[in-house]
Amino acid sequence: MGAYQTIDPAHYASTLDWWRDAGVDVLVEDAVRDWLALAPAALPPVPAAAPAEQALPETLAAFAAWRAGADAPEAGWSGVSVAASGPADARVMVLVDCPEREDGDAGALLSGPGGRLLDRMLAAIGLSRETVHLAAICARRPAAGRMPRDVEARLGEIARHHVALVAPERLLLLGDATSRAVLSADRQAVRGSLQPFHHKKGTTGVMASLHPCLLIERPALKAESWRDLRMLVAGMGMDEREERTA
Known about the structure:
Structural class: alpha/beta
Largest sheet: 5 strands, mixed
CATH class of the domain at 83-233: Alpha Beta
CATH topology of the domain at 83-233: Uracil-DNA Glycosylase, subunit E
CATH superfamily of the domain at 83-233: Uracil-DNA glycosylase-like domain
Order of helices and strands: HHEHHEHEHHEEHH
CATH architecture of the domain at 83-233: 3-Layer(aba) Sandwich
Radius of gyration: 34 Å
């Protein structure tokens, strides 16, 4: 083998083709590269910002219209929205979790047997539907008949805003789901005493009690409900009639 060897040019061509296929298209780089250094870790993607919740209307009339409109959380649910009733400046407000089955057709909350029991309960402490502000946390009845947990926090926020707009002296929460949404606590955890609810117009005393439909199923609980009602209006100067709910 001599010093002067004849090398086939095809060898150079195949080598250049191999480097080109490997992505090498320049002879040198301007900057020095440390080929043994570890590649920098990829940064995690920046999560998209959660959409801001829509500001709630600041007047009761505008709030009522919004509550029945397309922007309410329940707008996509089946059925019809059942509006709140009663004076805008009522001294006592009553909240239930959602409309009953018959309420949509009647266009009023608690229009069935539970509502008739509520009427007797209110009458026993000198109140009536005409004197209280009655509303539901869910404007429409959920498909499962109970408040969905995934929107409970938002609906609770809306309900608290509703209470602040009415600014009653007392608020009666009927049912465990209603208590969780407004007070962030089950009824059993706060039963037996008025809970303060502070809002921009002052403070409302809140009583968490039993739903009338439960009282129909379990009449023995009416004594506990009666104690709650007495405590609800204590100190308000109501003309109570000394009779138990029937």
